[in-house]
From TrEMBL:
Signal peptide: none annotated. This is Uncharacterized protein. Residues 11-35 have a biased composition (Basic and acidic residues). It comes from Pleurodeles waltl (Iberian ribbed newt). Residues 1-10, 175-186 have a biased composition (Polar residues). Residues 1-40, 175-222 are annotated as: Disordered. It comes from the Eukaryota. InterPro entries: Transposase_22.
Amino acid sequence: MPGSKTNQKSTDLEDRSRRDNIRLLGIPEHEEGTDRQAFPGSILPKLTSLDFDPPLEFQRAHRVGPKRSDISLRPRPIIACLLRHNHARQILQTAHKQGPFRIGQHDIRITADYSKDTNERRKAFLALRPRLRQLGMKFGLFDPARMWVTNNSISKDFYNPDELSLFLDSLQHQPMDSTNPDCSQDTGRENKGGGLLPRAQRKKARSIMTPTSIKGAGTQRD
């Protein structure tokens, strides 16, 4: 969760240092053979069906965590650091649209590589999705840990899950407008939502969804 400004800056710097990294999840142990650094360059064009020009190049690639002798356990993630940032973005955008991918009987996911603090914030935001759907709100989680929310035709970004949770607490027991035709429509932003609050709650919603409600909550990745 967001803490002091020093911690926020430290997290931001760490996330920026990982911008060229991707995580490959679900690849069976030992699938990469003896040349782990060359493996991502051979498998990624096949998974994504992308033509890379110039070809993919990597600064390093490695598994995370100690070796596992039990093949029944979940395989360790592979972190690959690409030489070119535009290649990393291209891969992640394709993975978001087309993933998960398949290798044999295994589902393969490709994700960004975030700091521990950012991962925790993302998980906390994702845990709030049922409440957002219950209230019929449109929402989407964006890079690195920013939750976009629309309520009563007012859109706001939240960088702090606690602030969003408090906002939802103030609305949780309010009746929804079941006649709203937009309720539960897909936003096209990874999530489902929709609907507006009753007129009686609009003033309260506007007062909560102000820039001051997220003051000092975090820093975006450019």
